[in-house]
Design brief:
- By secondary structure, the protein is α+β, with helices and mostly antiparallel strands.
- Helix content is 29%, strand content 29%.
- The chain folds into two domains: 2-111 and 254-268, Alpha-Beta Plaits (2-Layer Sandwich), CATH 3.30.70.1890; 117-249, Alpha-Beta Plaits.
- It has helices at residues 21-35, 38-41, 78-88, 147-164, 169-174, 184-192, 225-234, 265-268, and strands at 2-9, 15-16, 47-48, 55-58, 61-64, 68-74, 94-96, 99-109, 117-122, 178-182, 198-205, 208-215, 219-223, 247-249, 258-260.
- Strand 11 and strand 12 (208-215) form a beta hairpin.
Length: 269
């Protein structure tokens, strides 16, 4: 399931870095730790977007000028989402970089019915290689049209699906169909315009900073419905619980899928 958390922005015009997933990851982790419920403090089967709002770019990063900004949080575990919201709404204000945010309301996105394939867009960078301390291999560029690119994503997806404990060995073995086909016209157009669809991004784990390569482009993914549901809810690739690899279905208007989320945090706590 996916929820949109809408914040009031108390200091319009303030800024955060252009890529701020690591700041969001730190904020989310802090809120999870506040609740002190062990099964959720170290939970990793969730994903989140960047902060959405009206912005202008400067040398400092993104300046937000809308009165409200939105964060999309996704997880197949409703209890986890409610736990996070319960603890988030305990705070009258949260700080993200220079932004002062007041949590206001929550909306629920209607679920998307998957078929045998789905056309996705990346709403946060897609990471295919894991990283470790003093290792620069995660910055290596892998052409998205190659089998290596698709195979790495398949392996990480199957590993994460196994870790959930929600799929049997027989089910996992049946999910052998997995092929990512990038939008070659999009990539060719950006290449011709000398624009990048792959960049180096920072990520922090256990207070250690890593640098990883992230990709942002549209693609079609052929896979079992269960696999498509999983990557839509949990993200695709590495560091998904750090805000990487969040997807949305191409050629749809997510605003048309929004419903009021009946989450009464005052009662829950």
């Amino acid at each position: 399931m996916r929820v949109r958390i809408i914040f009031q922005l108390k200091n319009r015009g303030s800024h955060i870095p252009f890529h701020h997933q690591y700041l969001l990851a730190q904020m989310i982790k802090g809120i999870l730790m506040k609740g002190n419920e062990e099964k959720f403090v170290n939970y990793t089967f969730y994903n989140f977007s960047g902060l959405k709002g009206q912005t202008k770019i400067s040398r400092k990063g993104l300046h937000y000028y809308s009165s409200r900004v939105t964060l999309v949080l996704s997880s197949p575990n409703k209890d986890f989402i409610d736990y996070f919201l319960t603890n988030l709404f305990d705070f009258p204000k949260v700080e993200l970089g220079a932004l002062a945010l007041h949590p206001e309301t929550v909306e629920l996105e209607e679920p998307v019915e998957m078929q045998e394939y789905a056309k996705f867009i990346c709403i946060s960078p897609l990471v295919v290689l894991n990283s470790s301390f003093n290792d620069s291999s995660a910055k290596r560029f892998i052409p998205p049209e190659t089998d290596v690119f698709s195979d790495l994503l398949y392996e990480s997806t199957m590993q994460r699906m196994q870790q959930t404990g929600s799929f049997s060995d027989e089910e996992l073995a049946s999910f052998y169909k997995f092929q990512l086909i990038p939008d070659k016209n999009y990539i060719a157009r950006l290449t011709a315009q000398q624009k990048k669809y792959a960049r180096i991004y920072p990520v922090f784990d256990q207070d250690v900073k890593y640098e990883i390569r992230g990709y942002t482009f549209p693609f079609t993914l052929y896979a079992a419905k269960e696999v498509l549901d999983f990557v839509f809810n949990c993200g695709l690739g590495q560091f998904t619980h750090k805000g990487f690899g969040m997807l949305d279905v191409a050629n749809t208007n997510p605003n048309s899928r929004a419903l009021k989320y009946e989450f009464n945090y005052a009662v829950s706590r």
